[in-house]
Amino acid sequence: MATLVHQLLSAAVVLAVVQLICSYSFHNCIEDPYSNRQSFHCIHRSNKDMSNYTGDLPLSALNLTISISPLWHIPNNSFANLSNLQYLSIDNTHLWKIDQLAFQNLHQLKSLNLSCNNISELNHSLFKDLINLTSLSLANNKLKQLPEGIFSTVPSLGTLIMRQNLLTNFSGIVKSVSNLTKLRQLDLCFNNFTSLSHSNESLPKSLSVLYICENNLNTLGSNHSFLRYIKVLDLSYNSKLPAMAFQGVDLGNISYLYLQSTSVKVVEFLNISNVKAGHVDFSGTGLKNDSMLTELCKLLNKKQKKVKTLRLDNNGIEQLKNNTLDYCPNITGALHLSRNNLKRIGCLEFLSRHKQINSFDAEHNHLTSLRSCKTYLTVQFLNLEELSFRYNRILSVNRYAFYHTPNVKMLKLNINNIAFLHRHALKGLKKLETLRLDNNLLTDLFNDTFEDNFNLQILNLRNNRISVIFNRTFSSLRNLTTLDLGGNKISSFQPSGLDGLKNLAKLYLDGNNLKQIDGSLYRGFQNTLTVLDLQRNQIRFLTENISSPFLNLRKLSDLKLDGQRPYGLTILPRTLFRGLHSLKSLYLTNNKIFYLAPDVFDDLTGLHFLTLDNCCVGVTQLQPGVFKNLRNLTKLVVENMGIQNFSKEVFGNLTKLHTLQLNRNVMQSIPVDALESLPKLRYLDIRSIPLSCTCTNTLLQNYTLQNPNVQIVYLYHLPCQRDPKGRFFNFATNVCYIDLGEYLFFSTAVVIFLFTATPLLYVKLYWKMKYSYYVFRSWFSEQWSRLREEEEKCKYDAFISYNSSDEQWVMDQLLPNLEGNGSLFKLCLHHRDFELGRFIVDNIVSAVYSSRKTICVVSRKFLQSEWCSLEIQLASYRLFDEHRDVLLLVFLEPIPERQLSSYHRMRKVMLKKTYLQWPGSDCTDPMQAQDLFWNQLRRAISTGSRVKTEENDVSVDSVAPEREETEHSEKGTAEENCYLLP
């Protein structure tokens, strides 16, 4: 029950989607072109759910084929939307389960094919709604029995095929079909019946054809009248069935009885049976020697004076003596001796008593030659019209080999090893109409080979080793309509090689070694030729300057130029097809053409079918107007041409085009206006094209979903180029409909704002942002916590920031006075304490935060250094943002106010903090001034780092020493003012 609900829901969903989209495509089926939505095939699909095959098919469907797919279950009401279906085939699937109401409401169904599946049982009411069913095939399944009354509701059933199952109960079969008054054919071959015994029921009187071959029958076991209405009975390959099984069985109505590979002894059988001897097929009944054949003929002659057809195939007969068949009734029709072991048949002397025979075949024997039959003692068979020696080992055909059969109309010598055909071998065959010499080893034909065959209409010489057609070879064949020379090694025709063919309509020259097309060869039949096949030759054009070889072929309707070896046509000359106004079909596949001129097809105004499948090399650009004159074209195949793009003008004039196959090309988009210019288009195949699921194809998606007239093959399975799981029919297009004006307005406004604000932000916040970036990097590298240690844990007392040009002063003055002379300060210097291999920025940040103070040695060079600027920025951040007194400024030289105006952070420090000036040479006592300078610097380094904030008056560390020093400095002497500036 749960499965049923699931199936119904799935079908409902599929139908809802179809109704919503209104597209002309199907998930797993393709509508046959020109069927007007009536015929569908679903082949080589991977879906296991029946609803996905039938759910989106239209009510108008009459013919449905589902084949070679993993379908295993047909649930109830699977064809609820296909009530008009007349022909249904579900074959070669994994089907094993069919629900009771699977075929409900299929009242119009005439034919149902369920062959080649895994069905092992059927519900007794499975076919109850199939009141018009006339043909049912259950062949090649696993049925062991049929439920009672299964066919009681299909009164119109005429053909029932149940071959190759596991059926054993013949009585059950008879009971099932006994009420089928219209049943004409019943096929039960390849089952496991051992007997035909059954109860009181009988086979329908209408049944005329019964096949029970390949079973295990050892007796018929039925009543005498059981087979009275059967006309065709096949009991072959029941190896245990004896002749006595037919004792008393009424076979009087039999017109054909096949007993091959049974245990029936035909002479015994004919003696106890009422069958007409001439209606028995004696093939494979063990009649392998003259004595047995003589005995059979005598018995046949007693029963009737004439026999229309005598079948003696597959009996192992090695030879027939001249009088072997003399005792047979007069054969007025056909004698079949195929699949025996005959090595010679002479001139049919063994048929001398049967001159009225009209057909003789000795196919699949061991004949090696046909000898000459022109002697005065040779019996002539004037009524013989069909003669066949196919599938033998004939090497040579001697002169006048058929002189004894002058009225033969059809002669089959194909599929032998004929290497020698005497130039007079066919002499006397003046009424010959069809001659098959294909698949032999012929190398030469002569001008008198067909001299007497002036009534010949069809001559097949395919697949021989002919290399040259000599002058006047076919000069006598004025009535020939079809000449097949395909598959030979013809490289040239002599000038008059095709002369005499006044009425030739079909000429096949495919698979030869022709290097050019000689238009002069066709002059004798230029007004009658309709089909010209030049596939797989060596034709190649190296220039466009040629005259058309087809110019005068006014009635040519079918031209094949596919697959020229090994280079292809290469160039398609503009004038190649001049004059072919009546051409209907043109084949140009596999030709490596690198350019199609816009006017190459201009003369093909009557063309209906054109295939260019895989015809070109590399990426092809279809030129505008290349098909401009093909107004009658209905089918165009341009698969695998490497087409990258095309315009509307390419297909602009194809007003009658019905089918367009574009699959396996490389375009990422298809212009919709090009498709809309095809008013009669009904079938579009765009599989295996790398369509992009972008806004470029929005219109194409709308076209495929909303066009009710054009079938898009497997639309719902077309993938997106860069997303194999995505599907073209439903990729998101909402982003493609943004108001462009609004979008451009906001984009322009943002760009203008950025151009305006960026310079201002650069001037005001450059160092702030750069500092923040470096701090973030330090934090991100998990060093932030270490750099923010309490000052009691600081590694250095001061970090010295200076420019390399001031390094002399640092090394000679600063370092000895702060680290030497008994001082306890530990300084951090670039060249000495920075960690090797570490980023400079990380070293600077680490130095600033690992030191209680940062001493900036300011000079003009210092102000120009980017790294020095970064160091003072980091220290000033701690001063102002973290409220830590960590920054000390030492000016090595006087710097004018105007040069300091652009350094905002430094100016801010100088306005709030006292800074030190290195005593210059203008001081009255430089030594004393320098001593006071170093004392002040040492005291400043020794002070705490906490400062009083404006928001809170409470301070952790005393700042009295600094204030005291400040006051002292403001009251100091002139010498002190040389190094201490407010």
From TrEMBL:
It is a single-pass type I membrane protein. SMART domains: LRR_SD22, LRR_TYP, TIR. Residues 794-941 form the TIR domain. Residues 1-23 form the signal peptide. One of its GO terms (biological process) is toll-like receptor signaling pathway. GO terms for cellular component: endoplasmic reticulum; plasma membrane. The chain crosses the membrane at residues 743-763. It holds the Pfam family LRR_8. PROSITE patterns: LRR, TIR. The keyword Glycoprotein applies. Residues 945-982 are annotated as: Disordered. It is found in: Membrane. Residues 960-974 have a biased composition (Basic and acidic residues). Keywords: Glycoprotein, Immunity, Inflammatory response, Innate immunity, Leucine-rich repeat, Membrane, Receptor, Repeat, Signal, Transmembrane, Transmembrane helix. GO terms for molecular function: signaling receptor activity. Its main location: membrane. Belongs to the Toll-like receptor family. PANTHER family: TOLL-LIKE RECEPTOR, TOLL-LIKE RECEPTOR 12. This is Toll-like receptor 21. It comes from Acanthochromis polyacanthus. The lineage of its organism: Eukaryota, Metazoa, Chordata, Craniata, Vertebrata.
